[in-house]
Write a structure and sequence with these properties.
- 2 copies of one chain form a homodimer.
- Chain A is α/β, with parallel strands linked by helices.
- The first copy, chain A, contains 21 helices and 18 strands.
- A 6-stranded parallel beta sheet of chain A has the order 8-7-6-5-4-11. A 5-stranded mixed beta sheet of chain A has the order 16-15-14-17-18.
- Chain A starts with a strand and ends with a helix.
- Chains A and B meet through helix 12, helix 14, helix 15 and helix 16 of A and helix 12, helix 14, helix 15 and helix 16 of B.
- Chains A, B: It catalyses: guanosine(15) in tRNA + 7-cyano-7-deazaguanine = 7-cyano-7-carbaguanosine(15) in tRNA + guanine.
- Chains A, B: This is tRNA-guanine(15) transglycosylase.
- Chains A, B: GO terms for molecular function: pentosyltransferase activity; zinc ion binding.
Chain lengths: 490, 490
């Protein structure tokens, strides 16, 4: 197993990994451009120039169309598409979800994918949509489980086999399904039937679905967020531990005149300017692009450039330990993404176990930053600071502080820690001049906790007049509370 | 005057304008790439391909160097640089600020700029740095004023004359200087000596300097934030009413191996990936770029692509009425920019007069969004809602609400308004599911104000359990307060 997916770098739940397939190694996180075997807006072999390392296509479409099927069986999938790198194939589950039935069995489509040389084979699972009755979700999950067990027995080649996690919008079902599949040792775990959540901007629920599935899986397994192709939510999904995405969006959106950016979608018809630096947008004006004969192709190219630039930014952010800063910025693009961000941090206790102990300087980006894993971790380890005697707590040096036994620094959103640690991660954090309410909530709570842990010490708290928070009163009960202005006069 | 600068679109303090110069019309906001007359990383004539519409160069350097001076005087500035579009010239003020003196008088350098055919002429003002004594700032400002008055008398051609606003970090001096210059009718107003503020990330003070200067100037005059070339802070500066920037950064940063993005700067040496979609970054890997023979030039090109893409995004955001959403997102790039954002909204009452009455859907991006001009405006006009009889306030429909005389909607960060206006701007706002503390502060205050304005009405407030805020108690004193859960059971 470990030979197939290797994790090289980590930040929050995100990671940079190497996925080994029969046709080569793929660096994750990445997006697989969806190739329609019938119509190609941009040829598969050109995909590498945008940054694609792996493609995905639909084996059911190939299976159903005589001329495609014959070529695929005779010359192989890679020759059919004209791409010699890794190719994943879908099974017809999507068609099943749209039309209610497909004209192929699980074994038939598995065998077909194996024969044509797919690098990642997907069984014919049941994609249960969001919001169905629990009973239906459970029943369909049982069918999916049977088919996946059969698939695991059926596929024994070097080709990778995907084990899709279903369970609708029931986190408990997703987690249960995931832990069951974990024991069957699939090589890749797609999270299925999440497209309707993304289409209706239900990012908070999407976060719960991903987190629940991840909790059931081994953290060392690669996870594919099936159907996710909009770069706007890649950072959020990567932070939760998704490694693979697939984009039909680049082409479908281009067909509709939709222009993808990492902050959302524009309609080309409504653009006065092309707000992007890609080769297409640097060369054409919005007006020229609208009138171009190959408008759809150019738009598809722009969409791919924008998509892969976001992947590179995400990978760089993981390297720099800045993934959550990126997530917090991206999630400002839409209030529903902000809901997703807030939901992400309800899982901070779980995320914390993956988050590196030391990383790039913490940047405070907003109230949600107060709930990041490293802030939580700080609050859980306050007992390591043992304080005795007289202790002064202040945001920055004050007169006469050397008369105290201990000098402590207060810094939101963390709390109170020994002044000598100011330059140490995470206390070297870059924070705004005056903390938000939420940052004060965390840091004042942690300060109260520290005081409670050290009942023998005598605390003096130098308060800033900008600290407007009900917990200040609480601090006043446990410490001598002096406002900075009054202190100066003492 | 109005013929020289025409404002076409507005959003917050930002605008899209047309600046007419002897060598053509420039659409603002825009950046003027700085051309060093001695060394050119990228040739002036190529600048158009990146999106540049106007260049800036230093007339003092040309004046001081025999061979440049001769060509400029004989063939003109435009022939010297090989660019037939608008060119602004600096006067030597920068050299004055660095070396303490220059070997030219105000009249000499003005006359020289006029003769060589500069499109925007800059007098030899005194760039007073931040943090000097008030006395010095005042004295230098007096000298600057004299020189600008002389310049205004001296330059009477069709060439545009710039009147730089100085005053160090004293907002009152900046505003005073600006109102004085307003009466002298310059065509362009640079805000001078702000580079040290930007270099040390003092964005909050920069905001105050810009706002103070703008308050003194006519809102119809074009403003140039002299020395600002990093795209990270363009959106913030544009929202305050800056129209022109100049970038030496694209070349200076390239020389140092620094890679510009709209979210900050990377060192090429430390990049594993190129997190951008521009023609350079789509073609090269980080490793290849580091090893390229023309690394500096390629990096300069990337820096220009990134810079002008941000300008296009800003212009599109103004068109869409989404400039403040962009500002709020960009200001997450660094906590000091977040300080700048918070400071921006301390000027909301002033910004509100420029902000269109109706624009694109309001997106809530964080606590600062609660202080946007449109939220402030709503709070100032509560008297237009006259409420009588029984009134129910709720976030979404509840049972039995039709028994009330008036049905009102509560939506943070705004407050309470008639339910029939839910789909009207700004109440059609996209907001997170649960409001932040700051959003509750604004909306609950406005609700209390509405109740006070309508003492005859009987209010019932259906409260959500997620609303944790001290003002809820206040609401309880003025209205019947019922939690949604309890209401269901009634």
């Amino acid at each position: 197993m470990s030979a197939i997916f290797e994790i090289l770098d980590k930040d929050a739940g995100g990671r940079i990994g190497k996925l080994r397939t029969p046709h080569g190694v793929v660096e994750t996180p990445t997006v697989m451009p969806v190739i329609n075997p019938n119509i190609q807006l941009i040829s598969p072999k050109e995909m590498r120039s945008f940054g694609a390392e792996i493609l995905i296509t639909n084996s059911y479409i190939i299976y159903r169309k005589e001329e495609l099927r014959t070529v695929a069986l005779e010359k192989g999938l890679h020759e059919l598409l004209g791409f010699d790198g890794p190719i994943m194939t879908d099974s017809g589950s999507f068609q099943l979800s749209v039309y209610g039935s497909v004209e192929v069995t699980n074994e038939e489509i598995l065998g077909f994918q194996e024969k044509i040389g797919s690098d990642i084979i997907v069984p014919l699972d049941i994609p249960t949509p969001p919001d169905v009755h629990f009973r239906r979700a459970e029943e369909e999950l049982a069918t999916t489980a049977e088919r996946l067990e059969a698939a695991r027995k059926f596929i024994q080649s070097k080709q990778l086999l995907a084990g899709p996690v279903q369970g609708s919008t029931y986190p408990e079902l997703r987690e249960k399904a995931a832990s069951h599949l974990k024991d069957l040792n699939f090589e890749v775990y797609p999270l299925g039937a999440v497209v309707p959540l993304m289409e209706s901007y239900r990012y908070a629920e999407l976060v719960d679905v991903i987190a629940a599935s991840k909790k059931g899986l081994s953290p060392t397994s690669p996870v594919h967020l099936f159907g996710a192709g909009h770069p706007m939510m890649f950072a959020l999904a990567v932070a939760l531990g998704c490694d693979l995405f697939d984009s039909a969006a680049y082409a479908l959106y281009a067909k509709d005149g939709r222009y993808i950016t990492s902050n959302g979608t524009y309609h080309l018809e409504k653009l006065n300017y092309l707000p992007c630096s890609c080769p297409v947008c640097s060369r054409y004006t919005a007006e020229e692009l609208r009138k171009a004969k190959n408008k759809e192709e150019l738009l598809g190219r722009h969409n791919l450039y924008a998509t892969f630039a976001e992947i590179r930014l995400i990978k760089q952010s993981i390297k720099d330990g800045k993934l959550l800063e990126l997530v917090e910025q991206r999630c400002r693009a839409h209030p529903k993404l902000l809901d997703g961000l807030k939901r992400l941090y309800t899982h901070s206790a779980w995320l914390e176990q993956f988050d590196p102990a030391t990383k790039g300087t913490y940047f405070y980006c907003g109230p949600e930053s107060a709930s990041r894993p490293e802030v939580l971790r700080f609050g859980k380890r306050l007992e390591r600071f043992s304080i005795e005697g007289s202790a002064i707590i202040r945001t920055s040096p004050v007169k006469g502080e050397k008369d105290y036994d201990r000098i402590l620094t207060f810094k939101a959103p963390f709390g109170t820690f020994p002044a000598e640690m100011e330059e140490v991660y995470p206390f070297n954090a870059e924070v705004p001049k005056f903390p938000d309410y939420e940052a004060l909530s965390t840091s004042l709570s942690n300060t109260i906790k520290l005081m409670d842990l050290n009942p023998g010490a005598e605390f003096t708290f130098i308060c800033e007049k900008e600290f407007q928070h009900p917990l200040i009163e609480e601090i006043g009960k446990k410490a001598k509370l002096v406002y900075r202005e009054a202190w100066k006069k003492e």
